[in-house]
Write the structure tokens for this entry.
Amino acid sequence: MVLEGLGKSLNSALKKLFGASVIDEELIKELVKDIQRALLVADVDVSLVMAITQRVEENALDENLPRGISRREHIIKVVWDTLAYFLGEKVVPFTIKPGKPNLVMMIGIQGSGKTTTIGKLARYYQKRGIKSGVICADNFRPGAYSQLKQLAERSNVPFYGDEDEKDAVKLAKKGFKEMKNKGVELILLDTSGRHREETSLIKEMKDISKAVKPQEIVLVIDGTLGQQAGVQAGAFRKATEIGSIIVTKLDGSAKGGGALSAVSATGAPIKFIGTGEGMDAIEPFNPTKFAGRLLGMSDIRGLVDKVKEAQIEIDEDATMRIMKGKFTLTDMMSQLKQLKKMGPLGKIMEMLGLQYKLPEDIAEVQEENLKRFEVIMNSMTKEELDDPKLIKSSRIKRVAKGSGTSVQDVRELLKQYENMKKMMKQMGKSRKRGGRGGFPNLPGMPGM
Ligand SMILES: Nc1nc2c(ncn2[C@@H]2O[C@H](COP(=O)(O)OP(=O)(O)OP(=O)(O)O)[C@@H](O)[C@H]2O)c(=O)[nH]1
Ligand SMILES: [Mg+2]
């Protein structure tokens, strides 16, 4: 999992939001604190953390909610948008002209993941129908030649290297020529990792790029560096206009959030991220999607859409009453109708990532049942609807007779009511606990 730690803590912060009974300034403050903590642990720069949380705080309680959006949805969206904003703009991977030799040069300090990334990229593009090849211009580390050669063989792409040639510029030139002759469209140039700091690295980059004129120069940065990654990205951005960034080792790194945000703060475009040692562990970087994934929310979007589709109307009065512990038969009926519009409740719980075994009769709201319940309820007095406890056996008989149903049908309705009331109680309890791992507010129920 990419940035598992950060994702987990952000997700649990948002779960609290679902579990809370009221959304007020205090709750937002708590949410903001949780987010701050999560970002600081991920090594995001303090001033950036402040900027992010300020944005959330300012917008979360925005008075003007867009039509059809609940406060909860709005807050999730604010957190999501803010994170995405600070992760940078969406950029297109590489611009590759088909049928032409497109040279992409990879640079980066020792061990940042250049060679591995080249292997992954060659495979990534080859699979997508772009003829790819790799050149080893690393004449410094003894193992470099065979490392890249093996990676090329595994993906079945052409490789150029010469163990006896010590001049990196010559290697690059020769390799480029050979790849051109082979009709390779994406030529990936691997350079040496002898550099431990930016200055010498950038000098070599300039020497080689003068000789072979790459379309694009990619700085490969180790994501475990955290916010330090920003220093490299900044120096690189000053030195070249055709530069982009790949951040590696985001799998399992606690500091990856810091690396991504610091790099994006320099304005350098992050094009790919490395997410593991395997050959396929690379993906184009999309800040919006990435932020959603961090929040563990990709499915909540679906839920939000669904809620909107069903156009569930929230009855404020009923909400208040239920909050105060009063749950009437009429309330149950309107809840059941709303759930019916949304499809099986169990599925919704699943989308929210919550595990809770629902009583079967609640999970599946049957159309027929709803109709029968309605008929039965029509034979009840207002008093009875508001306080179903009053409905004892003689009243049950009367209602059954009046509605043309059976005593058993009426009992079933009352049982359903009891079940649902119990469920409401549990929800109330889990809210008081802070909601962690607890129960969400059901759509159309208090506060959602
Ligand atoms: N977990 C993880 N490991 C990675 C990733 N990318 C690279 N590595 C590992 O990082 C180490 C260094 O990778 P290389 O590709 O050799 O790095 P390099 O920049 O070419 O190194 P030099 O050429 O010596 O400077 C290797 O053990 C890789 O397996 C990644 O995304 N995730
Ligand atoms: Mg290397």
Summary: The chain is about 55% helix and 10% strand.
